[in-house]
Amino acid sequence: MKNIDDLVDSASDLAQRGLSKGEIADELNVSRETASWLVERSGTGTEPDTSDDGGPHDIHVDWSAVGRDSNRLYHAGAAMADLLSKKGDDVDLTIGIEKAGAPLATTVARELETDLGTYAPTKHQWDDDESETTDGSFSRNFAQIRDRDCYVVDDTITSGKTMGETIDAIHEQGGNPVACVVLADKRGIGDIRGVPVYSLLQVIRVGSDGDS
Predict the structure, then answer these.
(1) What global pTM score does this model have?
(2) Which domains can be identified in the chain, with CATH numbers?
(3) What sections of the protein cross the membrane (predicted)?
(4) Which has the higher per-residue pLDDT, 68 or 38?
(5) Residue 80: what are its φ and ψ, rounded to 5°?
C-alpha cells in the first residue's frame, strides 16, 4: 500500500466482505478513527466523502512484505523473542493478540520454549453503530492462563488500548504479564499498566503536531 487511495480501496473491500470497523483497523494497522474515516471516504454503506481533509492523524504500518513470507516472519518473530529473552525467568506462556499477533507469537513461543495462547480483543466487534458490550476472549484451542507468567505479543501499538485490554484480561484470569513485544510502536511508550513494552521499531511523527 503506497498511498491513501490504496488504503481507501482496501477499507472498502474489507467492509464489503463484512468486516467490522474494528477488524478493518486491525487489518490495516490503523486507529479506529482512521478505519472509520477510510470506510466513509470510500462510500461503502454511506455517501462518499469528497472533502479534501487528510483524515485523522495516524501512521499506517505496512509489514505485509514480512507477513507474506514464512521465512521473513520467522526471523521477525525470532528478533522479537530476543527482546524478551532476559525479561522473566519463569515465563512459560506466550499470548498472541489476534489476528496479526498470533503468528508472531507462535515463533516467539517456539524460540523461548513456552506454551502458546491467543486473545481475541473487543475491538474486533467494534463498529460506529454498535456499542462494545461483548468482552474479548482467550481461545480454548490453545493454552490457558492458569495463574502463569506471560509474554504478550502483537504486531503494532496504535493507541495502546488493545494491549491494555489484554493485560487486564490476563490479570482477571490470575496471570502475570511480564512483558509485551510488538513489531512497531506508533506511540513510543515504555510500558502499559506498568508492564514493559519492547518493539523492533518505534515510529515517531515529527512536525507541527509534535511527536507521536
Answers:
(1) 0.74
(2) 4-60 (no CATH), 64-202 (3.40.50.2020)
(3) none
(4) 68
(5) -65, -40
